TrEMBL record, chains A, B:
The gene is kstR2_2. This is TetR family transcriptional regulator. InterPro entries: Homeodomain-like_sf, HTH-type_TetR-like_transc_reg, HTH_TetR. It comes from the Bacteria. SUPFAM superfamilies: Homeodomain-like (SSF46689). It comes from Rhodococcus coprophilus. It holds the Pfam family TetR_N. The keyword DNA-binding applies. GO terms for molecular function: DNA-binding transcription factor activity; transcription cis-regulatory region binding. The keyword DNA-binding applies.
């Protein structure tokens, strides 16, 4: 019989960060997908990196695509939730600044640079439609807030979302990303829309972002 | 005996855009790498898409990596050359604007969205060092010009290069990229650095960019 300590019984010492086997699988897959490549990573390799059998992995995820889907959704869902809880009475510029600030911080906070997987050809498959719809929803939030500032049919309304996602390329290019990057990109998101009195907007946005879990 | 018309004799009708077999191979590989994935594409598949034998492909490129290297270098070398020919007497803001304008235009002009391959884990291998050095050189040109505007140790100096490369994500997300994108991103590159009298800077930059092949 296996002796397990108090709490959730474990048959093995965890090898990876994560409180559950599911979290360990996601961490191992995130590392392999971003450093070795999605196509070149098998579920066997992921199971080996966690130190479990492939059959145990299948208790948590039916396919490798399901693992990728969970990882990708994890990059947008916290920000969608943050946005949904923003006070709608705040001016559009304040909400946009807070959104860009939070979003950049969470893109930078994940242990692996998962945004680098957005451009995988595999992600265009139907199975990833739910993730693509969520990311589109997020892009539309940025666009709506920006349009409230610059007016309709202005191509600059696309820029804040693009600036925030540039954190992905920054992470790919630099071992250590500048700790100021969330603030820098949130500020740039206002500059490209010619927002006035950016210092005041940032003060109010900062108050919405500080204390939020994940920042 | 095979009858060949005037000019370079061809044993087959070309299937792909490109004046030479080498160009056809690059076009087929660019399509397959960006739509199917690099790891999932073999040299056999590329040869099939061109309509040549694998052995003929090896006359032009020794390995699949060599094809990728040629494609990646093709995304930065025209811009490095454009920059090298810019009049050094022009103010930094004008040169930066022209550089961003030209670079975005060339990233958008290529038939396939090759920038989407920058984040491939495979590109971190030693064999791609030459490409990475060229892209770093280009990033440094942007940084130097931006630093001449905002001063040293200002994190905003990174933003123009990031804005220009956001054209890659725009292409990935939209069938048709806004024809104004080069101008929009060139303008945004100035806005994020708080450049004054942007209209005048853009007029001078436009004169440097118009008439350049590839724009």
């Amino acid at each position: 019989m296996t002796q397990a300590g108090p709490g959730r019984p474990r048959l093995r010492e965890p090898r990876r960060p994560g409180a559950t086997a599911r979290a360990e699988i996601l961490d191992a897959a995130a590392e392999l997908f971003t450093t070795r490549g999605f196509a070149s990573t098998s579920t066997r390799l992921i199971a080996d990196a966690v130190g479990i059998r492939q059959a145990s992995l299948y208790n948590h995820f039916a396919t490798k695509n399901d693992i990728l889907l969970a990882l990708l959704e994890g990059t947008v869902e916290p920000t969608i939730e943050f946005d949904a809880n923003l006070d709608a009475d705040q001016p559009a510029a304040v909400r946009l600044c807070a959104l860009a600030w939070f979003d950049t911080a969470q893109l930078c906070a994940h242990r692996w640079n998962l945004g680098a997987l957005y451009l995988l050809p595999e992600v265009r498959a139907e199975q990833f439609g739910r993730f693509r719809a969520e990311r589109d929803e997020l892009a539309e939030r940025y666009r709506d807030l920006a349009t409230a500032i610059v007016g309709p049919r202005d191509p600059r309304a696309e820029l804040p979302f693009r600036l925030v996602e540039s954190a992905i390329a920054s992470r790919a290019d630099n071992e250590l990303v500048d700790a100021q990057l969330p603030e820098v990109l949130a500020t740039a998101s206002l500059e490209v829309l010619n927002v006035g009195d950016i210092a005041a907007v940032k003060r109010r946005a900062r108050a919405l972002v500080i204390g939020v879990p994940g920042i």
